[in-house]
Design goal:
290 residues, 2 domains, six-stranded parallel sheet, three-stranded parallel sheet, 10 helices, globular, binds NADP nicotinamide-adenine-dinucleotide phosphate
């Protein structure tokens, strides 16, 4: 078993980005700029936002964190987004999810200008990604692709099983792995909560690659996989003990895997790195650079 080291791959991607940024800055341009909106107080969101801001520094980007109280109304938040949409000095805008219950997240996502939508959640970007056109690709799914590419894991012609169909992870990674992208051309099964257990087991036991994003600790057990499987564990679950674990029973499953992502240090790191890739694209598009 070998580890798909998201930390190593992310650092390499961010280093490349920082070199490119240094070149642009040397030529007289301003730095790329990411704005993050954070509403309310939610401990995991605080930690995700912190790692995005830290990564911006490593990439040579400027960033701004705009905090709003839990009680902010949807209209007020939409007005703030409209203001940032019109600001040429911001290349990429993220609204950290989840939002308080009184705010409809889809209304917020739809309000972000697609050219600044570095999360890739806007219907325009999602649609373009699905059609194989240039787009900001949802960062977790894009990060997984970058990680597989970094370790030269063969994808073409392989049988992939994706478990979980959320708009931010399962759905986009199933599309990206099956599409005719630079990484893709796999045969993909997308499983979800209505997938009968026996069918799920049939699929996972013959899968070459499994991507699991259900948010259930220990969901994938040793008896569910074949020898040599490539295991991508997207889950981030905090146990009562405070320990962070994925959706895979790592101790039981890892020995059967050819490759596996650790949690932490796997997909999470790649999500942030992919956001940096998307921000650089927003910046180069903003300035019509190569
Ligand atoms: P989500 O929106 O809650 O979606 C979970 C998906 O899993 C749903 O599609 C659900 O099916 C499916 N599911 C739940 N129980 C299942 C079961 N027993 N059998 C088969 N499918 C089942 O979650 P998410 O946002 O995709 O996140 C999933 C996990 O990844 C969480 O632990 C989250 O913290 C983590 N995450 C990590 C990163 C990262 O950067 N590493 C990024 C995002 C999320 P239905 O659609 O039918 O309900």
């Amino acid at each position: 078993m070998k580890l798909l080291d998201g930390k190593l791959c992310a650092e390499s991607l961010v280093k490349d980005i920082s070199r490119r940024v240094a070149g642009y800055v040397d030529s007289g341009l301003r730095k790329p700029h990411m704005t993050v909106i954070l509403v309310g107080e939610h401990a995991p969101s605080e930690s995700y936002v912190k790692s995005k801001i830290t990564s911006c520094k490593s990439a040579g980007f400027e960033s701004a964190l705009l905090r709003f109280p839990e009680q902010i109304g949807e209209a007020e938040l939409l007005a703030k987004i409209a203001e940032i949409n019109g600001d040429h000095a911001t290349d990429g805008l993220i609204v950290q999810l989840p939002l308080p219950k009184h705010i409809n997240p889809q209304n917020i996502i739809n309000a972000i200008d697609p050219v600044k939508d570095i999360d890739g959640f806007h219907p325009t970007n999602f649609g373009r990604m699905t059609l194989g056109q240039k787009a900001f690709r949802p960062a977790t799914a894009y990060g997984i692709c970058k990680l597989l590419q970094f370790y030269e894991i063969p994808i073409k012609g392989k049988h992939c099983v994706v478990i979980g169909r959320s708009n931010i992870v399962g759905k986009p990674i199933s599309i990206m792995l099956s599409n005719d992208f630079e990484i893709g051309n796999a045969t993909v099964t997308l499983a979800h909560i209505e997938t009968p257990r026996e069918l799920l087991l049939d699929e996972t036991r013959r899968a070459d690659i499994i991507v699991v994003a259900v948010g259930i600790p220990g969901f994938i057990t040793e008896d569910m996989v074949k020898e040599g499987v490539v295991m991508i564990d997207v889950g981030i679950n905090r146990l009562e003990s405070g320990k962070l674990v994925g959706d895979v029973d790592f101790d039981g499953v890892s020995e059967k895997c050819s490759w596996i992502t650790p949690v932490p240090g796997g997909v999470g790191r790649m999500t942030v790195a992919a956001l940096m890739v998307n921000t650089l694209m927003a910046y180069t598009d903003n300035f019509n650079l190569e």
